[in-house]
Structure formats: C-alpha cells, structure tokens
Specification:
The structure is a single chain. The chain is of the alpha+beta class. The protein has seven helices and 17 strands. Strands 6, 7, 8, 9, 10, 13, 14, 15, 16 and 17 form a ten-stranded mixed beta sheet that branches. A three-stranded antiparallel beta sheet has the order 1-5-3. Strands 2-4 form a two-stranded antiparallel ribbon.
Length: 349
C-alpha cells in the first residue's frame, strides 16, 4: 500500500496563524535590559533575528510607540506586537483566489488553470498560488497533503488539472500517474516545420550548469512524449502532445531537444528560421510558452469509471493560431480529436 510522503500537518501550522496584535507587559526581571533582549525573553518562541526584524519594521511598539532595539526598559512597560508571517508560511494560508472548477464531486476536482497561476508555493511564489485558493474554497483540503494536488502545470501553461478531495483519492491518483493510466493531451505551437508525427523518449534532469532549467541528460529520469502534427504554418507547427510521464518542463524540454522549441518560450525558445518580424512580434505578444493542457482522462478513484475532460483553447493562444493561419491564408480543420497512436520513435535515450 502506498503511503504519502507529505505531512498533512504542513497545512495546519498554528505558530503564527495570523497577524493579530499580541499585548504583553515587560517583566520586572528585565529592568535595565535592552528592549531587544527583553523581547527575546518575553517571546522565546520567535528567533531574535525575527523579533529584531519586526521591531525595525514597526510591528512591535513600546508604550504605543516605535522603539529602538537599544532602548532601556525597566519593567511594567506595555508592548504590542503584530507577528508577521515569513514568506514560506504564506504557503499554508487560505486566499480568495478565483478557481475555474469545471467538474466536482465528493472525490475529485477538475480545474482549468489559467496561464500565470502558480500551482504550488515555492521560492519566489509563496502566496497567490492554486494551493492557497484551494485552501480558501475547500477548507477540508487542509487535511490532505498539498491540498490534494497530485500533479502540476508550469506557471505559464494553461489547462486541466485534477485535485483529490480525500487522501485515498490522492493516493489512488498518484498510483495512476505512476502506472501511466492518467491520459494528458496538450496543444502547443512549436517553432519550425515538423515533417511527421513522432516520439521523444529521452531522460530529463536538472541542467548541469543552470539549475533553474531542465535538460535531456543521461542522469535524468525516464520521460516519454508523443507528438502529432495538426497544422503547419510559415515557420511554426501546431502539434498535440501526449505524455506518458510527467517530468518538470517535459514537453518544453523534449520539443527544444529535437529542434522545435515552443513559440514564445522564455526559457527554452529560440527565434525560428523563416519567421517574419510580424510573426515574431505576435509570438512575443503571447507572453508565455504556447502550451495548453487540453484533455485529461483518468479512472475515477471511487467509481472506477473512465472519465475524460476537455478544455477549449484559451483566447490568447487561439489568437496566435488565427494569426499564423491568416499569414498563409490557409484553411484548416479544427477537428483534432483523432486518436492516432501510430508514431515513429525518433529518439531513444
């Protein structure tokens, strides 16, 4: 039986639940001490650095006024303090963030994530994430590790995600992801003209020089991406991608690895050959990698029935597709629902 490696208590921190003002009286045995020394004795649950930071920021008052750390206290003075959360503590705060829930039952949520929304708190994004929104709209998720999140989308990738509402459902979905029974299909605009459908089977791990990037590397984890050409334009191709694995930045890394990085990708992208200034400007105007999680299929954790959801192409991505179509004045068929699994493996890592 699989057990979660995430501690549910991470979503139940009580040391600084809010920034309500705490009032206290300087004890007599602190007479003659510096104010910062007295604070350390009065509030041992906080580090001295933290108390000094709050003091400098004006979050601690002595007799209703700001005070210097070196100010002498003599006992009996009134202290008021408004504890402030550290950035990593904001990760566990419920925030009123709009969520586009397209399906919900007692077991799962299916969310259509917009571009720009971070899924899980991390360095540089400690609040305003999908997790914060889930804790606000579904308070019961505080008892489920990661608020029920079982997989992620990059910040600037839009589309479908599943969230578990119970711990058994989360464990079931994690097993499905590992067993590759969760089906995920993406639509992307790739740079260059892709001649035929294919598969990239190449391990992905951290870039050996830039640790913020991922790369195809022999030391990485197995990763498989199938891609299918839907339309071709002047210097781009519209493709759909199906994942067998779920590595960080997988589609972006794999497509860049075969020389067809995604349009407007700020990390892995390049300017395609044959692109006009107008096309380049249209891609840059998108402001994000041209990638959308369009379909999501899974076995329902409770009913064991297969379920499938679709998400429409978002307005910004559709506008770029229309621009690329107009550029060559072509007519295209929007029926992309064919299930062609006959693909050529073009790379085996």
């Amino acid at each position: 039986m699989m057990t979660s490696q995430i501690n549910p208590d991470d979503y139940n921190r009580n040391d600084t639940d809010d920034a309500d003002t705490v009032c206290a009286t300087v004890p007599e045995d602190c007479a003659g001490s510096r104010f910062d020394q007295a604070l350390a004795q009065m509030f041992p649950q906080y580090s001295r650095n933290r108390l000094q930071g709050w003091l400098k920021a004006g979050h601690i008052l002595l007799e209703g006024k700001s005070a210097d750390a070196k100010t002498k206290v003599w006992g009996g003075e009134q202290v008021s303090m408004a504890p402030q959360m550290l950035p990593d503590e904001l990760a566990f705060v419920a925030q009123d963030i709009p969520l586009d829930v397209i399906y919900e039952d007692d077991t799962v949520l299916i969310i259509d994530k917009p571009a720009g929304l971070v899924v899980h708190p991390g360095s540089g994004n400690w609040e305003g994430t999908l997790l914060n929104g889930l804790l606000y709209h579904y308070p019961a998720l505080k008892t489920v590790p990661r608020a029920g999140i079982v997989h992620r989308l990059d910040k600037e990738t839009s589309g479908l995600m599943v969230v578990a509402k119970t711990l058994p459902a989360q464990l079931n979905l994690v097993q499905q992801l590992q067993g590759r029974s969760v089906k995920r299909e993406y639509v992307a605009i790739a740079q260059g003209l892709i001649k035929q459908d294919g598969t990239v089977d190449a391990p992905i791990g951290r870039h050996n020089k830039d640790r913020t990037k991922m790369a195809v590397t022999s030391m990485g984890k197995p990763a498989i991406t199938h891609y299918f050409v839907l339309e071709r334009y002047r210097a781009h191709s519209l493709v759909k991608c199906r994942l067998e694995t779920g590595r960080t930045h997988q589609i972006r890394v794999h497509m860049a690895h075969i020389g067809h990085s995604l349009a407007a990708d700020p990390v892995y992208g390049t300017r395609p050959h044959g692109s006009t200034p107008e096309i380049y400007a249209a891609c840059q105007q998108l402001g994000r990698q041209a990638l959308h999680a369009r379909k999501l299929g899974l076995i329902h954790p409770e009913t064991n029935k297969p379920m499938l959801w679709r998400s429409p192409i978002p307005v910004d991505l559709q506008a770029l597709i229309d621009f690329l179509r107009d550029d060559i004045a072509g007519e295209f068929d929007d029926d992309w629902d064919e299930d062609d699994y006959d693909v050529e493996t073009i790379y085996q890592g």
